[in-house]
What does this fold into?
Amino acid sequence: MTTHTTARPAAKAAAKPATMAQALQRAMRDAMAEDPTVHVLGEDVGTLGGVFRVTDGLAKEFGEDRCTDTPLAEAGILGTAVGMAMYGLRPVVEMQFDAFAYPAFEQLISHVSRMRNRTRGAMPMPIVVRVPYGGGIGGVEHHSDSSEAYYMATPGLHVVTPATVEDAYGLLRAAIASDDPVIFLEPKRLYWSKSDWSPEAPAAVEPIGKAVVRRRGTSATLITYGPSVPVCMEAAEAARAEGWDLEVVDLRSLVPFDDETVSASVKRTGRAVVVHESTGFGGPGGEIAARVTERCFHHLEAPVLRVAGFDIPYPPPMLERHHLPGVDRVLDAVARLQWEAGS
Amino acid sequence: MDSLQQRSSTVQEPPGAALAYRPTPPPAWQPRTDPAPLLPDAEPLRVLGTDAVADADPELLRRLYAELVRGRRYNAQATALTKQGRLAVYPSTTGQEACEVAAALALEERDWLFPSYRDTLAAVARGLDPVQALTLLRGDWHTGYDPHEHRIAPLCTPLATQLPHAVGLAHAARLKGDDVVALAMVGDGGTSEGDFHEALNFAAVWQAPVVFFVQNNGFAISVPLAKQTAAPSLAHKAVGYGMPGRLVDGNDAVAVHQVLTEAVTRARRGGGPTLVEAITYRIDAHTNADDATRYRGDSEVETWRAHDPILLLERELTERGLLDEDGRREAAEAAETMAAALRERMNADPVLDPMDLFAHVYAEKTAQLREQAEQLRAELDAESEAG
Ligand SMILES: Cc1ncc(C[n+]2csc(CCOP(=O)(O)OP(=O)(O)O)c2C)c(N)n1
It folds into this structure.
């Protein structure tokens, strides 16, 4: 897949600068306008436009058959999407919150992820499951989970998460265009992050599976994604005072994993820290650290470190700042990279 | 019961008389749908042995008979193949052939069938190659056919999860303007799963052209229906969703065919979904791995053997002069030919390519899968070099 641009009809009420939520909405709108088989369904996605307003206006513009308020049943939503995909539609499903996608896991794991495989390619599942995920918005229990490790552990799924407004557009377009199921994790605390990206300008469709170096550096690589990208960018700025010149790699796609970009970066810097919100034990960081070690062992000056959420159920809002890896924890890890053998 | 009554009689009247607050009655309430026409009849529909059978097309009756005989032989052959180790497992539908065959024959070519793991026979009766239908149970691949080619979804192992798929497909077809109907099959145990509820609810709300077909064969492995539900019948569950429920004698092939055809026609005309419950019985054990004597008695099985779907139809056709000795022999011979071919083809070892493991995980292999495929390739090469 190559990066390309799409010319799109002029936006109606394009607020400038655009937010990530608007970019996502724009991506669905453009996909629906271009391809009549694209359907959006989920709880409250129609009249309300989704609880985060990401599907705002789609039902009005495309009708309730294209943007459908479903009964309140996640397994039913994803299960019916499977049937719709069997008949040639491209369903884009919204799960209202990360932890409310769990009733749909059965469908996801038993059917969505393996339908292509079990039918020897005859029955692809071009489904996008959009999941607002992660914390930092003061949500009560079940509104802040980072479930990416569960999705990553299931072969047959792509797992994608944007960190910028531009990527939100570009990756969602690519996800909808993909003939395979894509878990599209939306960092909900970045929904209102802004950028100069204008919904009127043609935007790049980003290929799935390519990480990007957000910041060049020489002394260590921060490997991160989604809501932790801005944290790492800030940490990199702060680390300059300590004499550290940090490189930041935004993975954008957890499956497939861009070993090439990540290894190239770590081979250049010789040190790496993986940063994410999700729990550390059994979390994505373990897999990433292992991959980096396998590929870059002789280039490493120190063990690959992980900065992750604690291994606890997501805490209540008043405590979440203690759980979420912030700039300080990242800097602490960076300091530990001055590792000496035997220490 | 007695103790309950006793207890309630000792409950003191609350000092309600002293209540100053009186709730206002709610605004006039109307049910959204008149439940009466949705309710199933008290008795399962029977056609065989009644005058109604005279209305049936003799061609259809003969076809049903031939398919039942072939189906029974297919069940016997597949069961024998498990004993020879040629099939890993076979969930038999002996005793349930009327349901399987009627399900297949109630559909037009453009319609879709959503079978469960038990419904190989329905797929075969719909025209699927018997060997392809057994691929999953043989253990060589998860699905042995292209679902689009036959409009048969993969045999579904997790219970009831294919039901929402049927709803989604039917819904999509209707949105496209195609008059396609989906028939989704499920067992009595499967009706307890959440997916059953969600599928029925979605179908009714969307008025999707789906027919839900429950084969109530008495048991979910070992658990009898009484431990599965407290509803008057499984067909009664339809009313709560706003769709009609229909009860039918599942061993009466003509009745099952009639009820399913009506439901399919209704769905095709935009009338929405129907829930059909067929009362039948699983004569064989759950699968070859099950010991049915642990949970049911021989006398129960014998009662049901006397109500055998083939016997019922054979008796009726013979009495009506639609079937004679020649007709019976013809059907038996056709079944035998099918069984011999199946036996022979299943005796050949399936040829599998281990590299297929990576072939259909994604449309395009990821770098990781390419690497793992190379690793396996090297292992296979080393193996073959070592001889
Ligand atoms: C979700 C799920 N849970 C459990 C099982 C294991 N299981 C396989 S068959 C079966 C009983 C099914 O009974 P029923 O739905 O009545 O269908 P029948 O086998 O009688 O056709 C069970 C519990 C399963 N396949 N899927």
